[in-house]
Write a structure and sequence with these properties.
The structure holds 3 protein chains of 3 kinds. Chain A is of the alpha/beta class. Chain A has 7 helices and 10 strands. Chain A is globular and about 45 Å long. Chain B has 3 domains: 57-291, no CATH class; 478-564 and 761-901, no CATH class; 575-745, no CATH class. Helices cover 55% and strands 17% of the residues of chain B. In chain B, strand 13 (460-461) and strand 14 form a beta hairpin. Chain C is globular. Chain C has a domain at 21-83 and 91-112 and 176-236: P-loop containing nucleotide triphosphate hydrolases (Rossmann fold), CATH 3.40.50.300. The chains are: A alpha/beta, B alpha+beta, C alpha/beta. Chains in contact: A-B, A-C, B-C.
């Protein structure tokens, strides 16, 4: 990696809080969180379930609006955008990898990747690679016609990764990407993520409760009960 | 409270949207059934009331003397449920004359009716125009008074057979409307045999009659079995007891109930007076017909309404499907923690009871409202009846909800717990597809239809004393199997059809990228689309078939009314008046009348059979009324009228006559025609020129049609006695004008609007208007609801998927397109199903209920307006759902939705 | 003079100690259309009260299937599964339901809760199904023990994955069934909460004489058990 790379701030959270109502009880998912993400860096969000890691990722991706505070993406406040514009922002640079791979169940693996590529193309942002090539990149060349129910956990995650690459993301948000995988496969998938990062040079924010996984990242932030409690900023 | 039940109730409370949807759909389904129940009850009661009220004279018991008549009538009058019993007598006279200022005017033979005072209290066989019945004075029938030019105060002389004559002062003028019943031959074994009414009728008080006339004539001891219903056949005094039953005892129930009650009352009287009197029962004859019609009405309603209600309940099933996967996992979890299958059933029962009670009450309310809107006047709703309907609605709602819940949760009960937790995998080809059940159903349907068609649908009216109408139950299988088979076939072909359409669309217009994804995704949503297809398609098909049937029915009701009455307006005049006064011309001059034609309705003997003969003007009759080709056999209406014109002695006869006498076209047919001047029959030659099955104003048995001029010359009855008139405006309005124009000539004017309303003994009493309006409204509502439900289901089922798409950056429009594609696939398939199946079903229904359509329709009547509304309803439902889906998709909490499994 | 019996009485009835769980030569084959998958091959296993057993193996080795059979959620294709002498293979559906209610508590990897109920109501429902009398008391205690004291009224859908796991474990703990089966109970938890869960699970056999079987792919969790059984490709290997 070139040492003279300019560090630009991709995303930033200032004093954000997220509250919602569950039945009659108010749940505070996040409270007064400050965080910045620079281009190309790797950041691990550590903490147990319920600590707010997923909510924070949702915030960064514009899937959730903060109850207080601000979230910026490339200098623009996400809260000021309506849902459609936020969607466009996602198509143009923020990719998400979910814990359960979350493939579209009614499209094949290849169609899943192609769908994301099409969305990205509408936002005028795409890799130079065809969907089939993206699948080959993650080692699933022959599985293009498989429906998500026919793929194993690990294979599904790899398709999700290929899908996220289809839009040439600048920021990849991963929520416990290896949570449901056995340790062997988990290691392989993580290696793949880092290899892809080498190739495409995106920023990576990884939410995990596994310290081993967190250790791979340059920076770690610890969350508990919706607050940042540790880790270098 | 068991854990399972607690979970069930918590689910109801905390998922208000799903609970509300389920409840509303159940309420609508139940409302339809409730409205149908109310409507049928009301219709049957109306039929009973109409039937009983149209009978002017219930029972007639012949007796052999005046003394017996008075004694028995007094005795019977005291019986319960008897409104009136009167001693009545009839006797023939050979002539009647009036010595007036202008000289002597005479009329021919006729009958005298003798009634006691107070006769008209409950019996309506005649009514007074002027004056009344006073001791020693005679009342003349209106036509007779016109003929004699006599007025109250004048004197008339009645000539009796055997040379006697009696003179009376005229006390009044009356219209005798039931002469055919009053003077029929009374044979209790043979039953009612309404006869051709005597040409002239006069009325006397019984006491006067007994004193003056009855003593001079022989008394009839009882009509012989073969007494001909022809004037001049009765030769003596017929004493009878006329009984009218209390209407309150008969009404308030179905025609069969009234029939049974009437029979009970009559039997009770006859039993108490064994050997002294037996009755000719006009009432039961009428109620039998009404009971038969009621059976058909019930069958009709069932055929028309039950499918709709079933489909509505099916929608409840659809609504329950919204949460089937989640429900399945939660039920599996219950079982994993130790709940027994019985507890799950109990949970379903409690849930469906809770929802069912509210939905049932709501549905009952809607039913009451709907029926009150459709039916004018009171529905006859008593507390008891209302309670029954509410109870039925609640029970149905509970059952419907329970079955819906069971249907969706059935797998959860039967499979292993482990399989339930795993959730659905790739479904194997369903059993019915492997067994080709769809084709089997279609073949069976055709078979059943062909079988029942060849036996004439076995609609048998048992002609003996206890009339039963046995509809072949099996004939209902044909349409049911057709429904099932056609729908399953469409489901089977859907995949192929869809793929074919997809390829077609993909090739055209360069095949946009988005379309590729939409089609690919929809092609894997087969199960969901099939569900929508089945429900929406069947609903639309039901709507179409019902609409076509109802419209055809109305169309035929109009045709039937015209056949019964004869034309838009008919005018009946005393013999000779039509020709003498130029009635035809006078009527033609009335504004609103477009054409007239004269007829002579007479009688003639073919061998030993007495048949009606109609003398017509073949040149003008086609304009004054409708002659359809289906009325004739072997040739069209136009051609046969032409043949009559060419051959003055030409005659059209019925097929039975042709067969009975082995006749061919051109054969000589000698008829014995009644010469009105001499009162005797004489032979007149005719030539057969064609076969006629139906004719305006003709009866159901065999009859003949001949040239008016030839017939008039033969029977010397004074020419035509009826005028047909066609109108361009409302028949009732024109009818009033015709009455004005012919005032004073003793003309009876009837119009077709009256006929359609008044016809009692014909199937057209079954007024479909009310229920078909209800059904149309429900069909449109249900079509909209079905599309709305389907779209909501899609959004609910694919929530997680749509949230993922949004997370990937798809716009609301893109996501909405996925929903719209599925909805359009369903709508397209449903329209195909509706068009094909709806038409087939209507054809089948019409063929099956042939008895209802008399004559059978030339073509089905298509209610394009309603069908358009139906389609619009479905589209509106879909459009509303799209709008709602857009809102809910926009408000989808992405974070939380994505967290869900 | 007392007459002595010449009849040789049998010894006091020996109490038969049924193992809490036994598996003899168990096979499980899944059929999906034309495809057959052998999930378990000839598995033999005995679990006695008072112990914590860990079943270790990679994903797809059949450990979850084994658990399902032990919990009476599915029937073996061949071989016998017995719990305290009751053969699960030949038991009727009602007997299996009673078994699931009283004799076993199972914690799945996911989908442990009824989404419309709160955490407390979930535990209460589980206890009621087991026919336990003082359910509210026990429920409260178990929830506190698992560190969920402040979240009991939250609807299950609002809890994080780890919290949902802990609620399920609380329910199993409160049930005190003779056999507790747990499928990856600590998968979603961090180190601290993992300790809490393992401690609770280890406490049960000691205090209530039950058996705990934990299925895991984490060697660290396996280390906390008394016995480790290794599985690979549907068979026990160690």
């Amino acid at each position: 990696m070139s040492a003279a790379v300019e560090t630009t701030t991709l995303a930033a959270c200032r004093g954000v809080g997220v509250r919602y109502l569950s039945g009659e009880v108010q749940v505070v998912a996040l409270a007064k969180v400050d965080l910045t993400i620079d281009a190309g860096e790797t950041l691990a969000l550590r903490g147990p379930s319920g600590s707010g890691k997923t909510t924070l990722l949702h915030l960064l991706g514009g899937l959730v609006l903060p109850s207080e505070g601000e979230v910026h993406w490339k200098g623009r406040s996400l809260a000021l955008l309506d849902a459609a514009a936020r969607g466009e922002a996602r198509a143009a640079g923020i990719a998400y990898v979910f814990q359960g791979s979350n493939l579209l169940p009614n499209l094949t693996a290849l169609e899943n990747v192609a769908f994301a590529a099409w969305l990205a193309a509408k936002a005028e942002r795409q890799t130079g690679l065809e969907p089939a090539e993206l699948l080959a990149l993650v080692g699933l060349e022959g599985k293009g016609d498989a429906l998500p129910t026919e793929l194993s956990g690990g294979e599904g995650q790899r398709v999700a990764l290929a899908r996220s690459l289809a839009q040439m993301p600048e920021l990849l948000l991963c929520d416990e990407p290896t949570g449901h995988l056995d340790s062997d496969t988990a290691g392989r998938v993580l290696d793949l993520i880092w290899a892809l990062r080498e190739r495409f040079d995106f920023a990576l924010v990884l939410a995990t409760h596994d310290p081993g996984v967190a250790a791979r990242c340059e920076r770690q932030v610890e969350l508990a009960d919706g607050r940042v409690i540790g880790g270098p900023r | 409270m068991s854990a399972a039940i607690q979970l069930g109730l918590a689910r109801l409370r905390r998922r208000p949207g799903a609970t509300l949807t389920q409840g509303l759909v159940l309420a609508v389904a139940v409302a339809l059934l409730g409205a149908m129940m109310l409507f049928i009850g009301h219709s049957l009661r109306t039929m009973t009331a109409a039937a009983t009220r149209s009978v002017p004279l219930d029972l007639q018991g012949p007796v052999t003397s005046y003394q017996k008549a008075t004694t028995l009538s007094a005795r019977i009058a005291r019986e319960p449920d008897v409104a009136q019993a009167s001693a009545v007598g009839t006797a023939p006279f050979t002539g009647i004359g009036h010595h007036g200022a202008e000289g002597v005017t005479a009329a021919g033979s006729g009958q005298v009716l003798a009634v006691p005072p107070g006769y008209l209290r409950h019996i309506g066989t005649f009514r007074f125009l002027h004056g009344g019945l006073r001791p020693g004075e005679i009342v003349l029938d209106q036509q007779l008074a016109a003929t004699l030019r006599a007025r109250p105060g004048d004197t008339v002389t009645v000539h009796l057979g055997g040379g006697g004559a009696r003179t009376f002062k005229v006390g009044g003028v009356a219209i005798v409307s039931s002469a055919d019943v009053l003077f029929q031959p009374l044979n209790p074994l043979a039953g009612p045999a309404p006869a051709q009414p005597p040409a002239n009728v006069a009325i006397l008080p019984t006491a006067t009659f007994a004193r003056t006339i009855a003593s001079a004539l022989p008394t009839l001891k009882g009509a012989s079995a073969g007494a001909a219903a022809v004037p001049g056949a009765a030769t003596g005094v017929q004493w009878q007891v006329q009984v009218q039953l209390d209407r309150a005892a008969l009404e308030g129930g179905t025609p069969s109930q009234a029939l049974t009650r009437a029979g009970q009352i009559r039997n009770s009287i006859e039993r108490k007076l064994t050997g002294q009197i037996r009755f000719v029962d006009n009432l039961s004859a009428d109620l039998e017909t009404a009971a038969g019609d009621a059976l058909y009405a019930e069958a009709l309603f069932i055929l028309l309404a039950v499918p709709g209600a079933l489909l509505a309940l099916g929608l409840a099933y659809l609504a329950a499907l919204g949460t089937v996967d989640r429900d399945r996992r939660e039920l599996a979890l219950l079982r994993a923690r130790g709940a027994r299958r019985r507890s799950l059933l109990g949970m379903a029962a409690v849930e469906s009871t809770a929802v069912g009670v509210v939905a049932g009450a709501l549905g009952a309310g809607v039913a009451f409202l709907a029926v009150a809107t459709v039916i004018e006047g009171s529905v006859g709703l008593t507390v008891a009846r209302g309670a029954v309907v509410v109870g039925a609605c609640v029970v149905l709602a509970i059952l419907g909800g329970f079955v819906a819940r069971l249907g969706t949760g059935l797998r959860a009960l039967s499979e292993t717990v482990a399989a339930g937790r795993r959730g659905s995998g790739r479904p194997a080809k369903p059993l019915w597809q492997r067994l080709y059940l769809d084709l089997l159903c279609l073949v069976l349907s055709g078979l059943v239809y062909w079988l029942t068609a060849s036996t004439g649908f076995a609609a048998v009216v048992n002609p003996d004393s206890n009339p039963t109408l046995s509809l072949s139950i099996y004939m209902f299988f044909a349409p049911a199997l057709l429904w099932i088979g056609a729908t399953l076939l469409l489901v089977r072909l859907r995949g192929r059809l869809f793929g074919w359409t997809a390829r077609l669309l993909g090739r055209g217009a360069g095949g946009s990228e988005r379309r590729r994804f939409l089609l690919a995704s929809a092609s894997r949503r087969g199960a969901a689309i099939n569900r929508g297809l089945i429900f929406v398609g069947l609903l639309l098909a039901f709507g179409v078939s019902m609409g076509v049937f109802a419209r055809t029915y109305d169309q035929q009701a109009g045709v039937d009314a015209q056949l019964t009455l004869g034309a838009d307006i008919t005018a009946q005049a005393p013999p000779g008046v039509t020709a003498a006064k130029g009635l035809a011309r006078k009527i033609a001059a009335v504004p609103g009348v477009t054409a007239t034609s004269s007829l002579d309705h007479s009688y003639a003997y073919v061998g030993p059979d007495l048949q009606d003969v109609f003398g017509i003007e073949p040149g003008t009759i086609s304009a004054a009324t409708t002659l359809r080709d289906s009325y004739f056999l072997g040739a069209g209406a136009g051609e046969l009228m032409q043949r009559l014109r060419e051959d003055p002695s030409g005659i059209l006869v019925s097929k039975e006559t042709i067969l009975d006498y082995s006749l061919k076209e051109g054969d000589l047919l000698r008829l014995r025609v009644l010469d009105h001047r001499t009162g005797r029959f004489h032979v007149v030659p005719f030539h057969v020129v064609g076969v006629v099955q139906e004719f305006p104003a003709a009866p159901r048995d065999s009859f003949m049609v001949a040239n008016l001029s030839y017939l008039a010359a033969a029977d010397r009855g004074g020419g035509p006695n009826t005028v047909f008139a066609a109108t361009s405006e409302s028949p009732s309005a024109v009818g009033r004008r015709v009455i004005e124009a012919t005032k004073g000539y003793g003309v009876t004017v009837k119009n077709i609007d009256q006929q359609t309303v008044q016809t009692v003994s014909s199937i057209t009493t079954v007024d479909l208007t009310g229920i078909s309006r209800l059904e149309e409204a429900f069909a449109i509502l249900l079509a909209a609801a079905a599309m709305w439900l389907f779209v909501s289901l899609v959004v609910e089922e694919r929530r997680h998927e749509f949230a993922t798409m949004a997370a990937l950056g798809a716009s609301l429009r893109d996501i909405g397109a996925f929903v719209r594609t599925e909805a359009l696939a369903v709508l397209g398939g449903a329209v195909i199903l509706a068009a094909g199946l709806g038409w087939l079903m209507a054809e089948m229904l019409v063929a099956m209920l042939q008895h209802v359509f008399d004559p059978p329709p030339d073509s089905l009547a298509v209610p394009w307006g309603f069908i358009a509304l139906l389609g619009a309803g479905a589209l509106a439902g879909a459009a509303l759902a799209f709008a709602w889906a857009a809102i809910s998709l926009r408000r989808l909490p992405l974070g939380r939705t994505l967290r869900e499994q | 003079m007392a007459v002595e019996s010449l009849y040789r009485e049998p010894e006091a009835e020996r109490q038969v100690e049924w193992p809490i769980l036994e598996m003899h030569d168990v096979f499980k084959i899944y059929r999906s259309g034309p495809v057959e998958t052998v999930a378990l091959r000839g598995v033999d296993m005995v679990v006695r009260a008072g112990s914590v057993i860990a079943i270790l193996g990679p994903s797809g080795c059949g450990k979850s299937t084994l658990l399902a059979l032990a919990a009476g959620l599915d029937r073996a294709s061949a071989g016998d599964v017995r719990s305290s002498g009751l053969s699960l293979l030949t038991a009727s559906e009602d007997e299996l339901a009673a078994y699931r209610a009283r004799s076993v508590g199972i914690i799945f990897q996911s989908g442990n809760l009824w989404s419309t109920l709160s955490a407390r109501e979930n535990v209460l429902a589980a206890l009621r199904l087991a026919g336990i009398e003082d359910a509210p008391q026990r429920a409260a205690e178990a929830l506190v023990e698992l560190g969920l004291g402040g979240r009991t009224e939250h609807r299950a859908a609002a809890l994080s994955g780890g919290e949902q796991q802990r609620v399920a474990i609380a329910a199993a703990v409160a049930r005190r069934a003779p056999l507790i089966l747990a499928d990856e109970p600590t998968g979603e938890l961090d180190a601290a909460n993992q300790d809490v869960v393992l401690r609770a699970l280890r406490r049960l056999p000691r205090e209530h004489d039950c058996a705990v079987v934990v299925v895991t792919h984490s060697p660290a969790v396996a280390a906390a058990a008394d016995t480790v059984i290794e599985m690979r490709d549907g068979a026990v290997v160690g």
